[in-house]
DNA sequence: CGGCATGTTTGCATTATGCAATACAAATCA
DNA sequence: TGATTTGTATTGCATAATGCAAACATGCCG
């Protein structure tokens, strides 16, 4: 392993307070992942997380071709291809020949696919809402603002070293 | 300890404020997962996320047998078995025959395995710290408290099977 | 038309996973 | 103590997710 020096290090290594924040974030992120997995499992036992992500992309962005679909999921076309085949076989997707361009094929959700997405999404939001509901109300508002600030701060393109698409063990990126 | 609702309603009401919180949480969670994937990829291209999780479990909980290891990762023994084989082949794990009980085998990290875990963990904490550092300081403290309340509200482990946190806190797992 | 770019498929290899069956070892029972 | 049951590890078999490279198909240009 190349001990490549990490480019971004704009902050002091061991600041007690910063450590506290980082730990809080990491802990919360673990909970969030667990919630997602649970919600999905409760709706569709046979659906994997990558498959669910594909349905979600099609649901929120509308029909698109295999390559673009793969791009949204950070996988190469061949992977997207096989996933589409499986989900088509499961009745959740359908392929539509694009009349204007015969080398592209539009992939779209079927009614069944949309049903699954909606059910899982509702379930996840409900689970998160349940957890939030168990928080002291004062913390709820603080959470919204703090998370917004956090998301905003993290939105910036990852400093340097963005070039590599970074090999994908990257599952569960709902 | 906050007044965590003893009987959380299984169905959450969809009032505007709750929706806001849920949306903020979902948005932040996407960012967190992306950060995790990036950090791992930047340290070890050949390591998958499940493999990394296995190393982390062994790092934070110490050596254990295949079955328990699988339990911590939510996979069945055969899956854990094969993962151990691969990671052993990669020089990150080693098997130790248990003298007191010949039907169990202890799996432990090698120095190389520990190095990988530490590097990836440091990298991830650094990335999060970078994001947090870009937040207004006032929001930082609010974030800690709010996330703690959130994690606590959602911490409903089936059993209390967590031993004392062996090392430097933060058993963030993946 | 001929080459280049864009998209889709296939072939091949590896990892992750679950289920079922097997092989041992330890514990329990009759 | 010998037979049965239980706990672990391991192997066989099957499917999904992935990447890379190569084979095709189609659209565009000069």
TrEMBL record, chains A, B:
Residue span of region Disordered: 154-174
InterPro entries reported for this sequence: HTH_MarR-typ, MarR/SlyA-like, WH-like_DNA-bd_sf, WH_DNA-bd_sf
GO molecular function, one term: DNA-binding transcription factor activity
Gene Ontology biological-process entries: response to stress
Gene3D superfamilies membership: Winged helix-like DNA-binding domain superfamily/Winged helix DNA-binding domain (1.10.10.10)
HTH marR-type domain location: 18-152
The protein, known as: MarR family transcriptional regulator
Originating species: Streptomyces montanisoli
Lineage: Bacteria, Bacillati, Actinomycetota, Actinomycetes, Kitasatosporales
